[in-house]
Every structure is written in C-alpha cells, then in structure tokens.
Amino acid sequence: MNEPIAVSPKSFKSAVKPIWCPGCGHFSVLNAITKAMAALAIDKDNSVLVSGIGCSSRLPAYVDAYGFHGVHGRGLAVAQGLKVARPELTVIALGGDGDGFSIGGNHFLHACRRNVNLVYIAMDNEVYGMTKGQASPTTPMDWDHSKLTPHGPGVRPFKPAAIALAAGAPWIARAYSGNPNQMAKLIAEAIEFEGFSFIHVLSQCITFCPEQTDWKAIVHERSEPPLDSADLAARLFLADDGFATGLLYREPRATWPPPLHIHKNKNKNENEALAALAAAFAAQ
Amino acid sequence: MTLHTELATFLAHSLALESEARERYLELSESLAAHHNGDAAAFFQRMACEAGQHLEEVAELAGDHVLPQLQPWEYAWPDPEAPESASYEALHYRMSLVEAMHLALHKEQDAAAYYRQVASDSLCSETRRVAAGFAAEEEQHAAALQTMIAQLDEPAEHHRLDEDDPQLPA
Q1: How distant is the Cα of B71 from the closest Cα of chain A, in angstroms?
Q2: B160 is a domain residue
Q3: Cβ B28–A4 below 8 Å, yes or no?
Q4: Model pTM greater than 0.80?
Q5: Minimal C-alpha gap between B163 and chain A (Å)
Q6: A189's torsion region: left (phi>0), alpha (psi -120 to 50) or beta?
Q7: Are A5 and B12 an interchain contact pair (Cβ–Cβ within 8 Å)?
Q8: CB-based contact B88 A177, cutoff 8 Å
C-alpha cells in the first residue's frame, strides 16, 4: 500500500496512551514531534526526550524513543548533560511554562547562553494545569479564573522569546497547537540546527483556560524570513503580540562544549578529557 | 490550494487525508475512553473504522501509481490540517454523543467540500472524476450522520458543568 511518507509518524508513538484532558493542545505537540521524527527518519535508538514535571512533561512516555522524566524544572539540566556526554544523540528537552520559566527559569537562561546542540520545546498554556489551574509565569496579569488569584496574578507575564534572545539563544521559533504540520516543520528544522534551538509552543489548556480556544483567530504566521540580527529580533519580540508563529530568529554561533574538548582528546586518557571539559565549564 | 493537475498528487493528498482522519479519530476515542466517556469514545472508534475503510479504497486505487513522497507540511490543504482531521480543541471530556456526532459531521462535510473543489477546479479530467467519486462518498457519510443526529436528543444546556464534588467512600 502506498503510504504518505516513507516512515510513519505512528511508528514513533509508544504503546502508552496519553491521559491529558480531551482537548489539550499537547496532543498536537506529540503529533508534531512524531511527524518531525518520521520526516527526518530519526534513529529511535539514538534519540532521547527529556522532560521535567507537569502535564506536558508526560510526553516522553508517549514517544517510542528513549526518555527521561526528570525533576521539576531540571529537564534542561539533564538534557545538556546528556548531550555533552553523548554528542551523537538527538536530544529533545520539553516541558511547560511553569516548569521551564519558573521552577526551571535559571536553567532556561543558562541553556540559552551555553548553546548546547539540542532542541527545547516549551509547551505554554499559561497555567499550571496539573495543579488545577494556578497562575504561571506566562499567565496574563488580569486572568481571574483561579480561586488562588481571584483578581488576577497582577504580574506582567514572562516573554519567552525575548528572554531567550537576551540570554543568547541562537534559534528561536514559535508554534501553535492548532497547526501541528507547521510545528512539525519547525521541530525538524530545530533538530537539524547546530545549536540550542528554542520552540515556544502556544498549546491551549481548554480545561482551565477555555478562552484559549480564541487563539485560533489570533495566531498568525509570520511570512518574513527569520531575523539574523539580535538587535532586530529584540525589537520584534518586545513589540509583537506573542502570537506570530514561524522561525523568528536564527543567528548561528559556536556551540558548547567546543569540539576540541571531546574529539581532539579522544586519544588521551579519560582523566585529561574530563579535566579539559571541567576547565571549559569553569571558564564560562 | 493547488488544483492537483496530476492524479498522483491528488491521490497522495487523499491517502494523507484518510490516514490522518483515521489516526485522529482513534486519538479522540482513546482520549475520551481514558476519561470514562464511553459513548463518545465508541462513536469515534467507529468513525476511525470507517475512515480506515475509505483509506483502503484509496490505497487500492493508488496502488499502480507512483505517488510523490510529501512531508506533512508539504500538503496543500485549505486549512492548517487535513480537512477530515477533527481539531483537538473541539473535544471536551463531558461532550455528549450528539456533540461528538456534530464534530464528525463537520469534518465529513469539510472532506466533501475539499473533494468537490478538486472535482470542480482540477485541470486533469481523471483527477476530477476520481475526486467527484470521493466527494460523493463523503457526502453519504455526512447524510448518514445527519440521520443519526436527528434521532437523538440534544444535550441539556449545562451538561458540561462539572462541580468536581469530592468522591467520598460509601
């Protein structure tokens, strides 16, 4: 039988079935990840998905590849360590807005700065869903749907793309759960990019934020090519409405660790290689 | 949207449309089953079977053609997703059977509209002929769903309201 593509996205789904709420945007992210992995014919035995804690962080269990369901906010720390130790692996870190921008906010900043060659997908639904709808770092300041913040959090929301840029991320994209095919393309490009690639996904939580079904009418695809200057990107990210999707910024720079620390030392003894790695880390 | 001047390109789109519809209906069914909505889950399971049957028919028709290998983002759909793929966000764990049917009806109508447009606009006569046949099949599905919906009562106004009362032991 003719199949739409040579490798089926379905073959990248595990036997574990998602227990996300019906209507959750994370289904679409799972769909996009498996489509991207199929499109690139990724070797399952050499790919790892690493997450923190939260609704979105359940995702590695649903993909037929290696996975690590880590500690809250520490997915990026684990993912970077893994990629540095095993550079031949395809490493995808993922998590939610609370996990990535609050509990793991510090790791996010330094992952952007460090520029280890991996993909980070932040599935942003502007709420802590697993704990039943608390305000998160990206919740609008007047969102008053939670009993914990009956008048809204009253705090300006975090701007993930702008923060990533300021911290040094060389590749920044935004996707929307209502368009898994565009998201799949971005994930495939992110995997192929040499460096830290950050995808901010607008992934609706219809259970605690039913108003997010309005995103469909607000989201718009940015048709221009990605910006290659941090100055221009800063202006875009600080002024945009947060709903422009596509590859927004791409400015390759040297990844960490520098290749010589691992590859040129491969014939020396292991202690020397580890010492070189430690020295590079300390010098940062 | 492309006019599908080649039959092979159109068949590649049709295969993807039916394949994604089957997978999506299965996902919706499993999602609702996990949240104990048996009626809607069983309905979407049935829709997945029907999409699977149509997929087999299209695959049989496509068997002798060399189809282009398209990536998911290379298909020329009128909307971001394939026409028969129900939106994830349209789901609700307390959705009624009738609401599930309305969702499926909407997607069958979208698929029929897509095939009708190809049947109307394609520059290839064979593509137009095949697309018209597919459109007629989707219209039959839609009509059957409309008949089923007419036999059921609409849900109560606040049926989705969940007070989330604590589950105390008996």
Answers
A1: 6
A2: no
A3: no
A4: yes
A5: 13
A6: alpha
A7: no
A8: yes
Instruction: Give the strand pairing for A244-250 and A220-221.
Output: parallel
A107 Cα to chain B: minimum distance (Å) = 31
pLDDT tens digit sequence for A82-139? 999 999 999 999 999 999 999 999 999 999 999 999 999 999 999 999 988 999 999 9
Q: Is A54 left (phi over 0), alpha (psi -120 to 50) or beta?
A: left
Contact A2 B63 (CB under 8 A): yes
Q: Which residues pair with A50 in a beta bridge?
A: A68, A93
- The C-alpha atoms of residue B81 and residue B114 are separated, in whole angstroms, by 12
CA distance B139 to chain A (A): 24
The answer to whether the Cβ–Cβ distance between B73 and A181 falls below 8 Å is yes
Cis peptide before A87 (omega within 30 of 0): no
Look at A23 and B91 and tell me if their CB atoms are within 8 Å.
yes
Counting the structural domains of chain B, the total is 1
Domain-embedded: residue B43 = yes
Q: Per-residue pLDDT for chain B (170 aa), expressed as one digit of tens each? A: 556 779 999 999 999 999 999 999 999 999 999 999 999 999 999 999 999 999 999 999 999 899 999 999 999 999 999 999 999 999 999 999 999 999 999 999 999 999 999 999 999 999 999 999 999 999 999 999 999 999 998 888 777 777 766 566 66
Please tell me the distance from the alpha carbon of residue B118 to that of residue B53, in angstroms, as a whole number: 21
Can you list the domains of chain A with their CATH numbers?
Answer: 9-253 (3.40.50.970), 260-284 (no CATH)
Average of per-residue pLDDT across A17-28: 96
Alpha carbon distance A186, A247 (integer Å): 7
Domain with B20 in it: what CATH number? 1.20.1260.10
The answer to whether residue B169 is domain-embedded is: no
Chain B residue closest in CA terms to A17: B30
Is B11 a domain residue?
A: yes
Chain A interface mutation, best of B10, B15, B88, highest count of A Cβ atoms under 10 Å? B88
Query: Measured between CB atoms, does A4 come within 8 Å of chain B?
Result: yes
ipTM: 0.92
d(C-alpha B61, C-alpha A150), whole Å: 59
Report d(CA B74, CA B16) in Å as an integer: 11
| DSSP codes joined into one string, B11-61 | HHHHHHHHHHHHHHHHHHHHHHHHTT-HHHHHHHHHHHHHHHHHHHHHHHH
Q: What is the span of the domain harbouring residue B36?
A: 7-150
Nearest to B73 among A182, A204, A216 (CB): A182
